[in-house]
Write a structure and sequence with these properties.
Length: about 300
């Protein structure tokens, strides 16, 4: 069985569509825990309606404590051998559970399987390609996660038996809590990729990631800690610090509209690792995507 944990806080416009994407799965041996994190809109009503229609949905209500606390609540109450966290505004593709589970069953030593994610804009549902990737990926999920946060929540499935003892989400983090969790999970276990798309990520204005200053501080707080690990190879550490500065440049420029600060971070990225091709290829890729979108209009 797979336990799907859905934290839900004031997601009235999205929760039912997300739940329907779970019901539509080709693999049907699942339970879904909707953790209502103190919502003040119609979210509790929708959650109860979904539970009434399909008993595989369970609703747990708690006072508002944040997404990390909600996911931890789901972990405590879930029963499945495998676990998938799903944000309440994102969508699973129909074969997601089947593809992720098949990969884990074929690789019993792996703690995690992951698929590809596609992004779409809220309201219009227009697909939005993302330029951000790691052109120097090693194939080791832990090392690659140190360089590039490439596993959005909902795109991966976890094997409960291999999770580190007491591994939960850090409730003191308001940003980058997903990456923090995954870096602990992947530290001592391999993971297996799935070639198919498993998740559709909704991009909407005003989401938690829109606060650029907290986002930067969150990234710096967790990554400087993990990059001190002596097990990180020197070349990966250098590239990861460069990638961290580059990510801060992206957050400052595209989220915070602080272009001077973004330039300073970008120069720091180049100084850290002048031979890091990501620093040059990613801006070029972004520019080409913008140009293509304008030409297609």
């Amino acid at each position: 069985m797979i336990s799907i944990i859905i934290p839900a806080y004031n997601v009235n416009p999205y929760l039912e569509e997300t739940c329907r994407s779970v019901i539509a799965q080709t693999y049907q041996e699942w339970e879904a825990l909707i953790i209502d994190d103190g919502s003040t809109d119609a979210t509790p009503k929708i959650a109860q309606e979904m539970s009434a229609r399909d008993p595989r949905f369970r609703v747990i209500r708690q006072a508002n404590a944040g997404v990390s606390a909600a996911r931890n609540t789901g972990l405590r109450h879930s029963l499945g051998e495998f676990i998938l966290f799903l944000d309440a505004d994102d969508l699973l593709v129909p074969a997601a559970l089947n593809d992720l589970l098949t990969a884990l069953q074929a690789h019993p030593d792996c703690v995690l399987s992951w698929g590809k994610a596609r992004f779409f804009r809220d309201v219009t549902h227009e697909e939005c390609p993302t330029p951000w990737k790691n052109y120097h990926a090693t194939g080791n999920a832990w090392l690659d996660m140190l360089v590039h946060d490439f596993l959005p929540v909902g795109s991966f499935c976890l094997r409960r038996a291999l999770l580190p003892a007491g591994c939960t989400f850090n409730i003191t983090l308001s940003h980058a809590e997903d990456r923090d969790f995954l870096l602990r999970v992947l530290r001592d276990h391999p993971a297996v990729p799935v070639p198919q798309t498993t998740l559709l990520v909704r991009l909407r204005y005003g989401s938690a990631s829109s606060n650029y200053r907290k986002a930067i501080d969150g990234e710096l707080t967790i990554m400087e800690h993990y990059l001190d690990d002596p097990a990180v190879p020197a070349a990966v550490r250098r590239r990861a610090f460069s990638a961290l500065a580059f990510r801060c440049a992206v957050i400052a420029g595209f989220t915070g509209r602080r272009y001077g600060e973004a330039l300073i971070w970008y120069l720091k990225a180049i100084f850290r690792d002048p031979l890091n091709g990501n620093n040059y290829l990613l801006p070029l890729r972004k520019a080409l995507l913008i140009l293509r979108s304008k030409l297609c209009k």
